[in-house]
Specification:
By secondary structure, the chain is of the alpha/beta class. It folds into two domains: 139 residues, Rossmann fold (3-Layer(aba) Sandwich); 112 residues, Rossmann fold, CATH 3.40.50.1980. Helix content is 35%, strand content 19%. It is built from eleven helices and twelve strands. The strands form three sheets. Strands 7, 8, 9, 10, 11 and 12 form a six-stranded mixed sheet that branches. The chain has a four-stranded parallel sheet with strand order 4-3-5-6, with helices on both faces. α5 runs antiparallel to α6. It is globular, with a radius of gyration of 20 Å. The N and C termini lie far apart (54 Å).
């Protein structure tokens, strides 16, 4: 791993339990995950973020000008090398293991592993510590924790949360999305299936007959035409298009999720 001789380094542990050496005050950060990229900007690191993925769309003004280093699972090692990062921040689920292992040979790589709101809050504070923004990160965590604790749950209802079509794929157990659903009072019927993102047949969907079907805006761009398609399978379900960022982005966007969950139409029955 290449080090800058003028930079001070120290040991820390990331969310995968890895003991890594990171710079005391990183000056050239490459972020491999959209929600964590947005977090870095929220913490005030506009100048320090020197590279991000094509999917790092927030904030919009930075998405338009910052160098792109490929997709979350198709990183360009050449573009990353050209940016000479002193810290790379990634995520276990969103990035590809082999690519991360290759990057670890050359750079300090801090990895998150997030399945619950508690994990997300832990990540926010840990990243804040690594990048020298402890105070800002702790304040952000407190705002998120208070917001979710004060969030009233809807009347308990069953649901399926769709993330893909052809095949129909839903968020299952042990996922951040499932944790979000549970926190707002929705019982995820996919929790009983094997795998974190199970594939369902038409018969599976019909037999489950959820009270709510939520069609996420990402990664598959569900639209109105897909509502009619699922109505033919589950005519008794209430089918709603939802902003996937509110359920799956685990950085500073969680602040927006709180207001979304309070006011979104599916909470009003």
């Amino acid at each position: 791993m290449t080090k800058n001789n003028t930079q001070e380094y120290y040991n820390t542990i990331d969310q995968m339990g890895r003991d890594i050496i990171v710079p005391r005050y990183p000056k050239r950060i490459v972020s491999l995950v959209p929600s964590q990229t947005e977090l870095l900007y929220e913490l005030g690191l506009t100048d320090e973020v020197v590279g991000q993925t094509i999917f790092c769309i927030h904030p919009l003004e930075q998405h338009g000008v910052k160098p792109r280093i490929g997709g979350t699972k198709k990183l360009s090692f050449e573009k990353i090398a050209a940016l000479k990062p002193d810290l790379i921040i990634g995520n276990k689920e969103e990035n590809e293991q082999g690519q991360i292992e290759e990057l670890m040979k050359h750079y300090p790589v801090w990895m998150s592993d997030i399945k619950t709101l508690e994990d997300a809050c832990e990540m926010i504070v840990a990243v804040g510590s690594v990048v020298g923004k402890n105070k800002e990160a702790i304040e952000l965590k407190s705002k998120i924790v208070f917001g979710f604790e004060s969030l009233p749950k809807i009347h308990p209802a069953s649901c399926l949360y769709f993330i893909w079509r052809k095949p129909w794929m839903v968020a299952g157990h042990d996922t951040f999305i499932a944790d979000m659903l549970n926190r707002i009072g929705l019982a995820n019927l996919a929790n009983t299936f094997d795998g974190r993102y199970p594939i369902l047949t038409h018969d599976d969907i019909r037999k489950l007959s959820p009270q709510y079907i939520l069609l996420s805006s990402e990664p598959y761009p569900f639209a109105d035409k897909h509502i009619k398609e699922l109505e033919s399978i589950c005519p008794n379900s209430k089918i709603v298009l939802v902003n996937g960022e509110m359920f799956s982005w685990y950085g500073s966007r969680l602040v927006d999720s709180i207001d979304f969950f309070k006011n979104t139409t599916f909470r009003k029955g």
